[in-house]
Design a protein that fits this description.
Layout: E1 2-3, H1 4-7, E2 13-17, E3 23-24, E4 26-28, E5 38-41, H2 54-59, E6 62-68, E7 81-85, H3 88-99, E8 108-113, H4 118-131, E9 136-139, E10 144-146, E11 149-151, H5 160-172, E12 177-181, H6 184-188, E13 199-202, H7 210-213, H8 216-228, E14 235-239, H9 245-248, E15 255-260, E16 267-275, E17 278-283, E18 286-290, H10 295-310, H11 315-322, E19 333-337, E20 341-346, H12 351-364, E21 371-375, H13 385-396, E22 399-402, H14 412-420, E23 431-433, H15 437-447, E24 453-457, E25 464-467, E26 470-473, H16 476-487
Parallel strand pairs: 4-5, 5-6, 6-7, 8-12, 8-13, 9-12, 13-14, 14-15, 15-16, 20-24, 21-22, 21-24, 22-23
Antiparallel strand pairs: 1-3, 2-7, 9-10, 10-11, 16-17, 17-18, 19-20, 25-26
Helix pairs in contact: 3-5, 4-10, 10-11, 12-13, 13-14, 15-16
Length: 488
C-alpha cells in the first residue's frame, strides 16, 4: 500500500479536495478494473474520455480520483479525494512511476524510436546483452521479455501503468538492462514521461501514422521530443544518413553520437558484401560477418554495435557478439521453400520500408529470376500511404499482387481500390488483385519457377489476420511453405 500524497510526487497539481493521506492499494485508468482502495486517474484519450467514467470508478471502490482541470464531473461523495491536475496523461506516468518505486532508475533503460528498424534493433540488443550473460528486459511490438520469459504484447509501447509495472517486474527479476521500442503515439500520450532513460536511439523517419499525427512535421516533432527530454547523463545516438538524423538531436542535453554508412559518423559502417547468405561489414575499419541480409540491416547492426559501445562494451568485443546474432522473425526472413523458391517475409508496412526491402532484393538478385511482391494495407490506419505502397511495389517488382492485410473494420476491396489509385498507367500490366491473402500467396507460389523470389510484405511476425474485430490465425511464411509442398 502507498499513501496518495507520496505517489502524487512530481504531478502538476492545481487543487486537492479531500484527504490525500489515504492508503492506495492499486492504480487504474480503466474504471472496470477499479476495486476497493483504488486510485482512478481519468485520462482524456484519443477516442475515450475517462472523465465520463469517474462515477463508475467510485461505485467500484475508488477512494481517490485524479482529474484534469477544465473537465466536468458528476456529484461525487465527499469521502472521495479529488486531485485536480494540469494534465492527467502526464500525471498517470508520474503516479505509476512513484507507485512502482521508480523502476527505470534501477535499470539501464534504452529507448529506440523511428519509423523502421525499432523492433529489429531492440530485439537484437536484448539478444546481444543476453549473450554477454546479463538478465535483460525487452519491450517491443512483437513481444515483451523478462530474461527469457515471454509476456504478451498488445501495443508497441504499453500504457504508463502497465509499462511501469513491467519495468518493476524486470527489476525484481534481476534485469540490469532493458531495451524498448518507443512509439510516436506513446511519446505524444506521455506514456514514457517520468521515466529515466540511459540512452535513446533514432533509426530513421518516413511517412507513417499520419492518421494520428496529421502532418509529417508534427510526426517529426513528436519523435524529436523524446530526445529533447533525455537527461544530461544519457547518450543520444542518431542515424547520420537520415535527413532528419541531426534534427532529432538538435536540442538534446544528452551526449550526441552518430552512426551511418554514407556520411561521417562516430560509428562508420562499410558494406563489403551483400548476398542472400549474409553481410560482410566493416565498422570503424574492423571487418566482421553477419547472417543478416540487406543494406538496411547494415544500419540496424551498426546501431546495435554503437549502442553497446555507448553502454561500455569494447568495440571489438561488440562486433564479435553481434556477428553471432540471428535474424529477427518477420524482418527480412528468408526461406527457400521446397528447395525451389526464395520466400521473403517482411513487416514492411510503410512506403519507405517496402522500398528498402525491394531495393535490397534487387541489389542481390541476378535479374534472371522473377520477383513477385504480395502487399496489402491495414484498415483503419493511414490512408495516404496506400497508393504510395502500391506504386513502390509495381515499380520495383516484376509482378505485384494487391491483397488484404489486416482490414479491421474496413472493406478489403475499398482498401485495395485506394492502393490501385497509386499505380502509374505504364505499370497496369504488372499487377493483379487477389483479395484473399491466402489465395494471393497460393497464386504467387503456383507461378514461381526455381530460383524465383516471392516477397510477402506487411504482416511479418504476425500470426493472425484482423477482420471486423476478430483475429483469425494467419501466418504468411507457414502458408507459403505449405503451398510449396502442395504444388511440388
Amino acid at each position: 500500500m502507498k499513501t496518495l500524497s507520496d505517489i502524487l510526487f512530481g504531478c502538476k497539481i492545481k487543487q486537492i479536495v479531500g484527504n490525500d493521506f489515504l492508503g492506495i492499494d492499486s492504480i487504474h485508468i480503466d474504471s472496470r478494473a477499479v476495486v476497493a482502495s483504488s486510485l482512478f486517474i481519468a485520462v482524456k484519450g484519443y477516442t475515450v474520455n475517462g472523465h465520463d467514467y469517474v462515477a463508475k470508478a467510485v461505485d467500484n471502490g475508488a477512494v481517490a480520483l485524479v482529474v484534469q482541470v477544465g473537465e466536468t464531473l458528476p456529484d461525487i461523495s465527499k469521502d472521495v479525494c479529488i486531485v485536480w491536475v494540469e494534465d492527467s496523461q502526464e500525471a498517470v506516468a508520474n503516479i505509476a512511476s512513484n507507485f512502482y518505486d521508480n523502476p527505470s532508475k534501477k535499470l539501464k533503460l534504452v529507448g529506440i524510436t523511428g519509423t523502421n528498424g525499432k523492433t529489429t534493433v531492440a530485439t537484437l540488443l536484448h539478444g546481444f546483452f543476453s549473450k554477454m550473460g546479463y538478465q535483460v528486459g525487452l519491450v517491443s511490438t512483437v513481444k515483451n521479455l523478462i530474461g527469457k520469459t515471454e509476456l504478451p504484447s498488445t501495443h508497441t509501447t504499453p500504457d504508463a501503468i502497465s509499462f511501469q509495472k513491467l519495468l518493476a517486474d524486470m527489476v525484481d527479476a534481476g534485469c540490469e538492462f532493458c531495451f524498448m521500442e518507443v512509439s510516436s503515439h506513446a511519446i505524444h500520450q506521455k506514456r514514457t514521461a517520468a521515466t529515466h532513460f540511459t540512452g535513446g536511439v533514432f533509426t530513421n523517419i518516413s511517412h507513417d501514422h499520419l492518421d494520428y499525427h496529421k502532418t509529417f512535421k508534427e510526426y517529426i516533432r513528436v519523435k524529436k521530443q523524446f530526445f529533447d527530454e533525455l537527461p544530461k547523463s544519457a547518450f543520444a545516438l542518431s542515424n547520420a544518413d537520415d535527413s532528419n538524423g541531426s534534427v532529432m538531436l538538435q536540442n538534446t542535453r544528452a551526449t550526441k553520437k552518430y552512426y551511418g554508412i554514407k556520411y561521417p559518423s562516430d560509428y562508420k559502417c562499410k558494406v563489403l558484401e551483400n548476398t542472400f547468405l549474409g553481410l560482410v561489414l566493416q565498422c570503424n575499419g574492423i571487418e566482421y560477418f553477419s547472417p543478416f541480409i540487406g543494406h538496411f540491416n547494415a544500419f540496424n547492426l551498426t546501431a546495435v554495435v554503437a549502442t553497446a559501445n555507448c553502454l561500455g562494451v569494447d568495440l571489438e568485443q561488440a562486433l564479435m557478439v553481434v556477428s553471432s546474432l540471428s535474424p529477427v522473425e518477420g524482418r527480412f526472413q528468408h526461406h527457400v521453400a521446397n528447395a525451389k523458391v526464395n520466400v521473403i517475409v517482411d513487416y514492411a508496412h510503410t512506403p519507405d520500408a517496402l522500398e528498402n526491402v525491394l531495393n535490397t532484393i534487387n541489389a542481390i538478385r541476378t535479374k534472371n529470376e522473377t520477383l513477385t511482391t504480395i502487399i496489402g494495407c491495414g484498415g483503419d490506419r493511414d490512408k495516404l500511404k496506400r497508393p504510395l505502397m502500391a506504386k513502390v511495389a509495381v515499380e520495383l517488382s516484376d509482378k505485384t499482387i494487391l491483397t488484404s492485410d489486416n482490414p479491421r473494420t474496413e472493406v478489403p476491396s475499398a482498401i485495395i481500390n485506394d492502393m490501385k489509385a497509386g499505380v502509374p498507367g505504364e505499370f497496369f500490366m504488372r499487377y493483379t488483385v487477389q483479395e484473399d491473402r491466402a489465395e494471393a500467396i497460393k497464386l504467387a507460389m503456383l507461378s514461381a519457377q526455381s530460383g524465383d523470389i516471392v516477397l510477402i510484405a506487411g504482416k511479418g511476425h504476425e500470426t493472425y489476420q484482423d477482420i471486423q474485430g476478430v483475429k483469425h490465425p494467419f501466418n504468411d511464411l507457414e502458408i507459403a511453405i505449405n503451398m510449396a509442398k502442395l504444388i511440388s
